[in-house]
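Please describe what follows:
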Amino acid sequence: MSVYMEMAFLAKKWLGSLLLPLPLLLILGFFGLIMLLRQHRRSGNSLLLLSLTALLLLSTRPVANLLIAPLESQFPPHVVDSTSGLPVQDIIVLGAAQVADLSLPLLSQLGNAGLVRITEGVRLAHAYPEARLILSGYAGGEGRSSAELYGAVALALGIAPDRLLMLPEPKDTAEEAAAIAPLIAGRRALLVTSASHMPRSMVLFRARGARPRAAPVGHHARESSAILPLYTYLPRGHYLERSEIAWHEYLGLGWQWLTSKTDRTENK
């Protein structure tokens, strides 16, 4: 059963990676080129034009922000309130990609998403000194899991070891929700993850009966109040990455909706 689950997980990761904008549009353009070489000029030109135009648009700031802003705006940032009389008991930090290269400084071993997540988690842990810090994320082929790296960062930034609970086994958000939901039952918890990832995370936690409060971080759709120069509208790699992050989340939400619909059908 575990081998089957591992294969299903890898298949999902492969499919999800191939459906991201860059590989998907490159494949589309490649098929267009083949059609051109086989004298199917109209279809080939259409595919090439479609792939290049989509790649161009997804690499611009307005389109990237248009895609990611609806995800990031669903949950407001968490505001620390020491007067509520109901202190937070758990702070959950979801895992993110990491490279456990011991030759690098500790913070350099975390990706951007992981870095902002654990930084916010530690900030909240200092704001709520009685709260437990639940750190999640598996190794993914690295020698050290996200949870362990998070724990090392938290210790380096002054969090006591007895406040840490590390969960290095969950491989994705669904598994994190399944593992963490029983631990926070009846407790006041904050969920820390990237703002774009928060909608899908909350759906998965609520499906497990957990009701943590959202503490989103790492917002991408930041609009300046100043008038920006025209060159900021040129295509750039980091805008394509922003579009890819949003695309990934929409794919995840679609997959979650599809699987939940299938489960409801089977249970009838």
